[in-house]
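Working notes for the structural subgroup meeting. M.R. asked for a predicted model of this chain before we commit to crystallization trials. I am recording the input and output together here so anyone reviewing the notebook later can reproduce the run.

Input as submitted:
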Amino acid sequence: MHARPGRRPAQLIAALLGATLMTACGAGSGSGSSKAEEEPPAKVTVTPANGDKAVKLGSAVSVKVSGGRLTSVDVKDDKGGKLSGKLTGNGSSWTSDGNVRPGATYTVESKAKSGGGKETSAKSVFTTEQAGKVNKLTNTPTDGQTVGTGMPISILFDNPVDKDRRADIEKALKVTTQPQVTGAWGWVKDYSGKDRIDWRPKDYWPTGTKVTVKGALSGIDSGTGGWFARDYNYGFTIGKDRRAVIDVTAHKLTMYEDGKAVGTISGSAGSPSAPTRGGIHTVRSKNAAETMDSATIGYGNQWMLDSKWVTHLTASGTFLHSAPWNKSIGVVNNSHGCFGMTTSDAKRIYDFLLIGSTVEVKNTSNPNKTEVGNGLEVWQESWDQWQQRSALK
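Returned structure, recorded in token form:
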């Protein structure tokens, strides 16, 4: 039998066309699958390097990525402390806010994503150098304390702080208040001889203010005094607005609450030969019972007297206290610089004033200015004078 004319060429064309279509579909599918599988993952680089056993103090941590973007970075030390930081360059890098602390092991865990969406995880572990000397702080007020409206934030350093290091330390300290309060840091020489930095508000604190103090000091060098080995984070609350004003010539102390006089107390201030220090003092501490020792304020062994309800102002010995031995209370100023009262009145003012309340002394013949470090004496200076104490002025 013979095939019909024209049938064979038509079948051949159809077969060839089908083969061509199948080849095109197969090639396209295979090429796409291969490209997805072959795309390299994002490459993450951590500095300091993984396995480093002697990372220099003062180093920051950085994480960079090529061929993708970082989606998360977590840096922790061996005590659980986190080192915060920020992503920059649309996720191309991460840099820590602070520096590594001495003698610590850090673990850096990061995640990244390639341009095609492939996820990558990376882990890096390194250890920092030990510090030859560590500088520590004593913070006033303490965490959770309620204090008076004149209370400064006072940070006392165990070891000296070199002047050329003060700006970096001051930058690492942050005060947050609710409501917002204007204030400034100032460097002070404490009565003990140690270095100190205080933060005072421009004006007295509003009652109820919540204050948070953060010090990102880990890995900062204080110079002669050594390195800081930890960060600090604490807070306190401003209590009732209670103050006192002493009129030396009138032998009177007046108590004020929210700006209104709420009581007066008779007393004896410093004698003409030892007049009470003037200006605005801040209550730094209180003691229910104390022995008044003349040797502690430069009078040798002249007296040793037991007193109750002692409110401390200056570090050099200006106090409010009971003076049951004094028979001239309210009549003659005959103390060695303190303000003496009856025992019952001393307890009244002891209970009334908070740590951080202010006591202003007026009409004294004492011309000497009290140094800021002689207690918490930040109100002895004007706002303009105070601001000059900043290392960042």
